[in-house]
Amino acid sequence: MKPNSAAARDIAYHLHPATNARRHEQIGPMVIERGHGIYVVDDQGQEYIEGLAGLWSVAVGFGEERLARVADAQLRKLPYYHSFAHKSHPAVIDLSERLVGISPERLTKVFFTNSGSEANDTAIKLIWYANNARGRPEKKKIISRHRAYHGITIAAASLTGLPPNHRLFDLPLPGFLHVSCPHHYRGAEPGESQEDFATRLAEELDETIVREGPDTVAAFIGEPLMGAGGVIVPPRTYWEKIQAVLRKHDVWLIADEVINGFGRTGRMFACETYGIDPDVMVLSKQITSSYAPLAAVLISDEIYEAVADGSAEVGTFGHGFTGSGHPVATAVGLENLNIIEERDLVGHAAAMSAPFLDALHGFADRPLVGETRGAGLIGAVELVADKATKAAFAQPGATGQAVAEACHREGLIIRAIGDVIAFCPPLIIEAGEIADMFARFDRALSQVEATQA
Ligand code: PLP
To answer: How would you classify the pairing of strands 280-283 and 295-300?
Structure first.
């Protein structure tokens, strides 16, 4: 590595998110300089298929001129304005109306943040505030799930159910509980059907709420289909059974659609895919195709009315970010939605799902593969040491890492979540590109299989 190279300066000055800092000092960064369509190019000129759409997010692909033009125009016209103290601007109004128009019926108001984590923190604060305003100050606990990923700010990290997001951080905070992950392959008893597994998880939730006291439990949060926890497709009937328990105990449901939203599962929202009727919905990532940081929290009228009453009592709603509803981010979000609708990228994702899932499931027979799973244009291959017993590797994550590195050599970026290899390509991907992506993965997997044989 040359001194003063981008890589050397990255090691010298940059603390990376979600990275082993000591390992980074040794191996340095992959420096990505540009992108087009489903591809990105590094500073050595090597081109890769971006099999995870960045961080599950670049729906319209890289290098979309329309988004660049809109951002440029907004920067020239009104680069910044805020929404505090009754101020507003056209882009935030238009996007609010648009999101309420396309989201599930009961959601009527939008609050904007810069990130999904802030949006989940905001969802929790709205719920606490509303329950105080409604005279239910005890109803505050939030139930999430093991292996959930909901972000990394203090409340969002408490919702997250992954050890690296808790260890050494003194998290989760008290009042945040976790129930079982709905992963049939890992969680079901031998011979237990998907439906029976779902029933058992709903019973666990019911027992948890009863044990804690229904008057103390405010909300349950879940991604309709879990992404960063390892692409966990819910077992059949899971969401209808979970929602029945929540309704019984008057517990609100937060649907975290940060990865799922805007077409990922083949419908505009995964709430439609899985028949979910949320009280709160959290959106980010594909809302702007991540061309600008933006997230949104949509709430029901019931929650809005309580929050509005509370703000009148206090004198203001004491919550908001300098960047809430940023003009450039909301303008980019609107144009991104225009592109998604004009090109019918939701329909496209649904149409591409068959070639995507067929190719993915084609790896099920490989010696290192325990399970293949997915929906729409998101999927995963879970690597195991022993197919028959489902035993994990003695050194967890090492095989996943080896596959990720072999993928890089083949010109493919995917995400290794431990020993789970996740695929989540841009929604614009075409059938030929899907075939190319999995051909590259096939070669990478074969290389690792050869070393283990
Ligand atoms: N919720 C889900 C489901 C996510 O996948 C993520 C990020 O990956 C977040 C929340 C947090 O979003 P951000 O990284 O923008 O804070």
So the answer is: antiparallel
